[in-house]
Design brief:
One of its GO terms (molecular function) is all-trans-retinol 13,14-reductase activity. It is found in: Endoplasmic reticulum membrane. The structure is a single chain. The protein is an alpha/beta fold and 578 residues long. The protein has a domain of 229 residues: 3-Layer(bba) Sandwich (FAD/NAD(P)-binding domain), CATH 3.50.50.60. The protein contains 23 helices and 20 strands. A seven-stranded mixed sheet has the order 8-7-16-17-18-15-19, sandwiched between helices. It has a five-stranded parallel sheet with strand order 10-2-1-14-20. Strands 5-9-6 form a three-stranded antiparallel sheet. The longest helix is centred in the middle third of the chain and has 24 residues. Bound molecules: flavin-adenine dinucleotide (FAD) and 2-acetamido-2-deoxy-beta-D-glucopyranose (2 copies). One 2-acetamido-2-deoxy-beta-D-glucopyranose binds next to loops.
């Protein structure tokens, strides 16, 4: 361990020095680009003009510097970084609107966020917040969640135990200790451990930038689980520990104003200002290569017609499996270097989402700006395995884990936009193979059997919700529908309906994979961005964009973002003094 840390330190110093003295590219975080907050636009038509610009070949800008496949935060974020240093970038999105997992949709007057319920670490001046502010020119606004911000609920209906999770450096452990008297030592020990792993994630960022052979010396493992069982005999506490591991370092204190589509809405103009464009209904069917096997563009498929688009650089936000298995010509797919990377990755778990539109305000329905993590038992490792490997009809009747949040209650602009209404979003996992047989049918017209299966999942999830939120009754439900793994394949291009990209099992953190899976691919001028390059989740995908931008611009943008955060803090402190 010590040796590992020592090596990490030495390499860090070398790389910090390298990037300080040899940074060759321009810095997108050079200046503070925040502008005064403009009035929020609620008019759907106005937003559509930005988010839903359909692909037409004559809308493609001339002399592109790069083309990006996919408009998730990984794709848009990278496009913004490149635009900020004057590059002309085209982003192509297969769906009918920009945003990827950050897109929103409206049904029966209810607006739903697809994949962002939870963003952490947004305190003023923290690098991550600073980065996001800079990348949206300061137009995103955030508001704090409730404290406690999370409720961990364990056990069956007749014996549910609730553990509120508070934010705050000391309040968080103090409140946890109140829930588990006698376990103080285990809690302190565990938090110390998780913090260490959290720091490792930062090291991961540098790993991606080091030359591969050097990076392989660095040791990083998530050896947490084995340790937990040695810390405590209390099964509920073990379960809470596992939850903390999944969310720690990502403790949410804020959520965004006006829904997740605000993010894309404020990024696109920055890309356009540099001469670029973000076009939707633009499915890329292949990446183009020259005779030297260097990427030189992409082809967009509209109907039966292919539109080739040329650019000196191609960056894929479509995930490693789509990129390597669908978009590369056959002869390049079989390259040993590509096969090796693929063999180290697995598809992540498929997602199940339930969207509920309710008649009533948050007060009437007892909804708050918080999140519920509901587990039917405290041994959820086993439960989840049993669930995912079970018969679909059986599994649909007992969903072992359910994340529940009310996006409307978290958004103070909601009441003005949709008075008297509320929404709930539920997220869980589902096995892709349960739904695979229907994957080729039209999304709005799938078989009765599919609808019935979906309904069983909905009923199961709804029963949990009705039990935990007693003010919600069936007559308040105006809209309810579910998205399955095949829904995700259609709308966000996830090949196996994954919600977090490639699998995040322990293998993902092996030094070998960490060092090999980088934004650079074995093919010249082809790069990867987004969650598969770094880690999943909004913050992970954005960090993926930063890592990819670092490789392209040949400087460490993680350090640049930290640098900007420091100056911004400095400037604010100075203003106060004056
Ligand atoms: C239901 C759900 C809930 C989630 N909850 C949270 C949460 O609370 N907190 C959190 O941090 N994260 C959450 N996530 C995960 C998070 O949203 C993702 O990890 C992150 O946004 C991924 O960003 P990305 O840019 O890597 O990929 P994506 O957002 O998936 O973007 C990839 C884009 O590429 C497009 N694409 C694919 N193939 C092609 C092609 N051939 N041509 C053109 N375009 C293509 C896709 O349509 C998509 O728009 C959730 C995800 C889901 C689905
Ligand atoms: C919503 O609830 C109110 C009373 O609480 C009722 O008057 C109204 O008709 C309901 N609306 C719908 C669409 O069900
Ligand atoms: C999904 O089900 C298939 C078939 O039953 C099984 O082989 C696979 O392991 C399951 N997937 C997961 C993630 O458990």
């Amino acid at each position: 361990m010590l040796l590992g840390l020592g090596t990490i330190c030495v390499v860090l110093v070398i790389y910090i020095l390298k990037y300080v003295f040899w940074s060759s590219g321009p810095n997108p975080f050079e200046t503070d680009t925040r502008e005064p907050v403009r009035k929020m636009v609620h008019d759907q038509k106005e937003k559509k003009k930005v988010l839903k610009q359909g692909f037409l070949i004559n809308k493609v800008p001339k002399d592109l510097d790069a083309v990006i496949i996919g408009s998730g935060i990984g794709g848009l974020g990278l496009a913004v970084l490149l635009a900020k240093v004057g590059k002309k970038v085209l982003v192509l999105e297969q769906h009918d609107r920009a945003g990827g997992c950050c897109h929103t949709f409206t049904e029966k007057g209810f607006e739903f966020d697809v994949g962002i319920h939870y963003i952490g670490d947004l305190q003023d001046h923290k690098p991550f917040r600073c980065m996001l502010d800079s990348m949206t020119n300061g137009q995103l606004q955030w508001e704090p969640l409730e404290n406690p911000f999370d409720q961990v609920v364990l056990g069956p209906p007749e014996n549910r135990r609730r553990y509120p999770i508070y934010s705050g450096r000391t309040r968080f452990p103090d409140e946890l200790k109140k829930c588990f008297p006698g376990e103080e030592k285990a809690i302190d020990e565990y938090l110390r451990l998780v913090k260490k792993v959290g720091r490792g994630i930062w090291v991961l960022a540098l790993l991606k930038l080091c030359p591969a052979p050097l990076a392989k010396f660095l040791v990083y493992t998530g050896l947490v689980r084995q340790v937990v069982n040695g810390l405590t005999e209390n099964k509920d506490l073990r379960a809470v520990f596992a939850y903390i591991f999944g969310t720690y370092g990502n403790m949410p204190k804020d959520s965004s104003f006006g829904g997740a589509s605000e993010i894309a809405y404020h990024m696109i103009p920055i890309i356009e200002k540099a001469g670029g464009a973000v076009l939707v209904r633009a499915p890329v069917n292949r990446i183009l290569f020259n005779e030297a096997n260097e990427a030189c563009g992409v082809s967009v498929m509209k109907g039966d017609e292919e539109f080739p688009i040329h650019a000196p650089m191609v960056i894929s936000n479509a995930g490693i499996f789509n990129t390597y298995q669908k978009l590369l010509p056959k002869e390049l797919q079989t390259m040993p270097a590509i096969q090796k990377q693929l063999s180290m990755m697995k598809n992540g778990e498929g997602g199940l989402s339930v969207f509920v539109g309710l008649n009533g305000t948050k007060e009437e329905l007892g909804l708050k700006a918080d999140n519920y993590w509901i587990f039917t038992e405290n041994n959820f490792d086993e439960m989840v395995e049993k669930y995912l490997n079970g018969e679909r009809e059986e599994s649909a009747k007992s969903i072992p884990l359910l994340f529940v949040a009310s996006p409307s209650a978290k958004d103070s602009t909601w009441e003005e936009r949709s008075p008297g209404k509320s929404t709930l979003s539920l997220v869980s996992f589902a096995n892709y193979s349960w739904f695979e047989e229907w994957k080729d049918a039209k999304v709005t017209n799938r078989a009765e059997e599919y609808k019935e299966l979906k309904q069983t999942f909905i009923d199961t999830a709804l029963n949990v919700v009705l039990d935990i939120f007693p003010k919600i009754t069936r007559d308040k439900i105006e809209y309810i529908d579910a998205g399955t793994p095949i829904t995700n394949t259609y709308y966000i291009g996830a090949p196996k309906g994954e919600i977090y990209g490639a699998d995040h099992g322990i293998g993902r953190f092996s030094p070998e994979l960490s060092a090999t899976l980088r934004p650079q691919t074995p093919l010249k001028n082809l790069y990867l961005t987004g969650q598969d390059v770094f880690l999943c989740g909004f913050a992970g995908a954005l960090a993926g964009a930063l890592t990819c931008g670092s490789a392209i611009l040949n400087r460490n943008l993680h350090l640049d973002a930290i640098g900007l955060a420091k100056t911004m803090k400095f400037m604010k402190a100075k203003l106060k003094d004056e």
